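Look over this entry.
=====
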Amino acid sequence: MSMNDVAARGFAAASSAYERGRPDYPPEVVAMLREQLRITSETRLVDLATGTGKLGRQFIGGARVLGVEPAAEMCAEFARIQPGVPIVRANAEVLPLATASVDAVTIGTAFHWFDGLAAVRELHRVLRPGGRLGLVWLQRDETVEWVAELVRLVDTYREGDVRRYAETRWQAAFEDEPGAALFSPLEFAECPFEFEVDRATAVARTASTSFVAALPEARRQEVLARVAAFLDAHPATRGRPTIGLPHRAEVYWCGRLGS
């Protein structure tokens, strides 16, 4: 199963750190997706690149949820946390789903890893006419100076083909032809929030980063130790039992065009 090498190695190694270190999707975001994707208890909802189910689990009981995830280790963590919820192992570009078999798709903090146009074409195939698509990214708020300092520290360890949401023109898959003819124009909303964590969880947030998890063990431990030292020393976080990590949720949605 083909996927980006850094993503494949990193997310395979970091499934437990991902579950612990990544924030949950805020209730406001879940409510927005429920409204914009017109999700009801009968909606056939695919949570694509579901990981450990951080986003998809918010709709369990309120939709017919199916997780789709390429990393075997993430699938295992998903099944452990959400026993009985179906999950299949697949890439976004080749979905083992019947044509027009899905009412809505959610994608949390993942589309920038995809082959954009191939994924858009496949999403158009599996969604029914009038089906809806929601994309969300949870981003650390780097307008906060200490957060930007922390990100710069961790970024010194970037190696390989690391794709970052803010550095990729992922929207082109929807805005340029032929993708523009497949979905309605993307709509957007933003939701700031804080992820309140203890220090160990703040370090796990770094450990869940794909390129950090993919590092050789000695280098991985080095960056985690430096992050812990940064949090111990920085005036914004020093001596605090918990830390509010500033984030923002960036939410996009659109509808499938055509018959």
